Amino acid sequence: MLSSLKPQPADRILALMGEFGADDRAGKIDLGVGVYKDASGRTPVMRAVKAAEKLLWQAETTKSYVAPAGDPAFGAAMAGLILGPDHPGERLAAAATVGGTGAIRQALDLIRLANPGATIWLPEPTWPNHPSILSYLGMRQASYRYFDAGTRGVAFDAMLADLGRAAPGDVVLLHGCCHNPTGADLTLPEWAELGALLARTGAVPLIDLAYQGLGDGLEADAAGTRLIAEALPEALIAASCSKNFGIYRERAGVLLALAPGEGARDLAQGTLAFLNRQSCSFPPDHGARLVTMILGDPALRAEWEAELDAMRRAMLGLREALARELRERSGSDRFGFLAQHRGMFSRLGATPEQVARLRAEHAIYMLGDSRLNIAGLNAATVPVLAQAILDCGI
Questions:
Q1: 121 an active-site residue?
Q2: Is 127 considered catalytic here?
Q3: Which CATH number is associated with domain 11-44+313-391?
């Protein structure tokens, strides 16, 4: 049986990680994998997480299962973080998932059960795992224009024109903030206009919120998602705790389903529990428990928010430093978009051949579409990258 398996396409990011690890050149720079790194190149455990783990170790009396949908307190805490304290809880179903990716997968499985013929509209470009999971599930997908390669901003008019063709019951996948891979985000007025369009077409938003707090701040990064939730009767929100709590390996995520009423909410809640039972039986709890503790304790939450904001400001500082270095070295402001983008990523605008030169000649690793992880830089490597970009003719 096993010999009849066919090789699967390699994941670009994992393949790049392997190439970087095998490179023995001193001074190599990893701008590929999407994890936060501090100035020393480490992905640290946040202070509030360490404190919560100590408290949990002292107080926890069992490692028994929680529930198929996870601890309701985790769903409530995440709903408050994402949608605000006055969110419509009577319309909200929630389930803990195996990371943000698990939340996306559960959302797509939920859509398959509710509307098997739905087309899932993806931004062009988007995180590669989005179309990969859709293809694996055999679901219909279409793309809408999102990124303007000329301005390095959002192609908003083109986006609206494409999404105007969505049918009732179709699903539009949106990045809540810190768009991956471009770093180009919608403005709040654009979110409002998008919400009005979705209301007219009857399409349902699926918001991937993986970086809340790492763009313009916790509240600002959730503002677009909140506008959509207020404007529409139904919405799905897949959120990750990996980046903003720094608990990547704990695989803590949540899927929120906003329903048009309590009856539909109960159906959605039961279905989310059913889907978890089929995939993982019970979702992991350790990371979710830490998040719940941090969000529910004023002191821990204040500590977490302060550290998260320091991470955010550090990345903004790196963006500004890189844009400034390139401006001074090139005599041009054509890289000014780097300072305007938000989150971990920006798309540089290099060709695959230029990206290959960066890797071969300068030991600088980024994805072939020129997505670079800003958090992979530090004060010493910013000028190195800037000069390499210009040396490679980008």
A1: no
A2: yes
A3: 3.90.1150.10
